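Lab notebook: predicted structure, single chain.

Context: the supervisor wants predicted structures on file for every construct in the current expression panel, including those that have not yet been purified. This is the next one on the list. No modifications to the sequence; it matches the entry in the shared construct table.
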Amino acid sequence: NINHDQSKRPINGNDLLALETVLLRRLTNSSLKLPEVILVDGGKLQLETLKMILMSVGLYDRIIFVFSITI
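Prediction complete. Output recorded below exactly as produced.
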């Protein structure tokens, strides 16, 4: 259960902030192997959030991401 992001901002149903928080925690944890694939189900905003996070941690070209757009 994630209630706050790394800067202690409350998530309170903000799915983009929750996605950002989970991705940053997972991708910056040096004790874990990097994932080969990330699967996200969502819309354009979730895709842009994923791209932004991967670029910010320097992994945009190292991880395959599969995206399913919900209609």
